[in-house]
Structures are given as C-alpha cells and as structure tokens.
Amino acid sequence: MDVYLPIANLSVNGLFIVCLGFLTGILSGLFGVGGGFLTTPLLIFYGIPPTVAAASAATQVTGASISGVIAHGRRKGVDYRMGAVMVGGGIIGALFGAALFRLLQALGQIDVVINILYVVMLGSIGTLMMREAFESLSASKGQKDAAPRKRRHHPLVAGLPFRTRFYASGLYISPIAPLVLGVIVGVLTMLMGVGGGFILVPAMLYILGMSGNVVVGTSLFQILFVTMVTTMTHALTTKAVDIILAGLLLLGSVMGAQFGTQIALKARPEVLRIVLAAIVIAVALRMLYGLGVQPDEIYTVSPL
User: Fold this and answer.
1) Closest to 219 in 3D by CA, of 254, 173, 255, 182
2) Which residues cross the membrane (predicted)?
3) Which is nearest to 222 in space by CA: 34, 74, 24?
4) pTM of this prediction?
5) Domain regions of the chain by residue span
C-alpha cells in the first residue's frame, strides 16, 4: 500500500508507517514515554529526510499526549502551576529552536546536527538507564540493599531567588528552575522532534525534587502544549510537517499504546527498563554508524 508524502516528496509503504507508529505506541504504553525519541531515528533509517522526520514526529507526540494528560488529570496527577511555568519556558525554547533550525538548514548542516544530537542524547540516556535498571534488578534479588533516595531538589535550585509554592508537587522553589528546564526541552523538541519526556521526567525527579505521583502527568502536560507550538512553528517556518506521515504514525501509536499498557501490567519493571535501554543504545549505535559511512547518494535535491 504505497502512500505519497507531499512534504517528504517520496512514496512509502503506508502499512509499514502504521506498524512503526504501533511499535512506538507499544513503547509509550510500556514505559510511559512518548516514543518520539525513537520515531524520528527510525523514520530516518527508513529514508525520510531528517527535517521532515523531526517535524512530523512532534505532531504525532502531540496527539499521543492528549489522552495521557486527561487520564492523569482525573486522578489529580498533574501540577498545573508547575506545568504552566514549564510550558512558558518550552514556548520560548521552541521559538529559539526554530531560529536555530532555520539557520542550520540554511547552512546545510541540519541533518548532521539532528543525527549528532540523537547519538549523544540516546547514548547517554541509554547507558544511564541500563545501569539504573541493573542496580534495581540486583537489589530485588537481594544481592545488595537499595538505598532509599530522599526527595529534595538540587542545591543549585535551592539557591535561586523568587521562591514560590507548588502545592501539588510539594515544593517551595524558584520558578526560574522549571522555566529554564522548559526552555531546554523546547529547543530539543524543535530540533529533534521529541516530546522530551525522557529528559524531563528524570530532571523533574532529581533536579526539581518533584513528587513522583505528579511527575508523569505534569511532563505530559508540558509536552502537549510545547509540541503543539512546535508543530505550528514548523508548519509556518520550516514547512517540514508532513500531515499524512504524522496521521499514519498517530493511527498506529494510538492502537499500540493500548497494547503496551496491557503488557506493562504483567511484566517486571526492571526487565522492561533493561529492554528499553538496550533499544535506545542500539538506535544510538546505528545512528553513529550512519554518521561514519558514505551514504548511497552523496548529493540530494530537497525542496526544503
């Protein structure tokens, strides 16, 4: 079933794209991540231009985040005040990222930068996830005791001015810290097409010291609005959003998320984290390999 993608300017197997969305949807249901950090590199492997892959993946993440925010909001698992501050930072970051995206695009280096960012981010995060998962697995087997972690924010956060209370998160900190965190995630969302949850959730836990019961919901709240702004910015500036590609991905991811949730209820969390870490590291190594070898077509003509 061949489908023509007008922005990517090529024909793809529509069923394959839906299956790819289904795969990332399963990962979303299993691990609580949007899946955008894997969707973009997998699309690049398939032959989609990196600019179109990043912009269209952000669109998919927007749709996939809506149901998550609603579900967490019903059980009071969203700190809307904290989320609003991070959304503000994310919008600033997305606008800055758009200017950076256009600059790199004009220099002809945007594809290389996207690939390098993925190698660095996925390699680092995958390694940290693998180490943490093995430590948890060892502790569960009684090989060593897992030291309980006291929930507190980073010393740098404690020293910032203009403290205010975030009641849902149980924090009394400066809004500058979540604002800066939002800016960073906004830039990455614009450049890489990711929701940023794989960076945002650990940062909210270990840097801001947020309560675990509101972290995922607040992260999805921020991701929802920032990816909306990112999609609109891409559509108006870079013109790299392929709505047909995003629609096919979203169709598969919605179905896959339900399937992944059922698996997550039966599998051990430590084993799931090891599997996810292995997938992330494998994708990073594949992208690193792609940066070091000569492509099949040295010269390409792109309408972007």
Assistant:
1) 182
2) 12-38, 44-71, 83-104, 116-134, 179-207, 214-234, 240-259, 271-289
3) 34
4) 0.69
5) 2-292
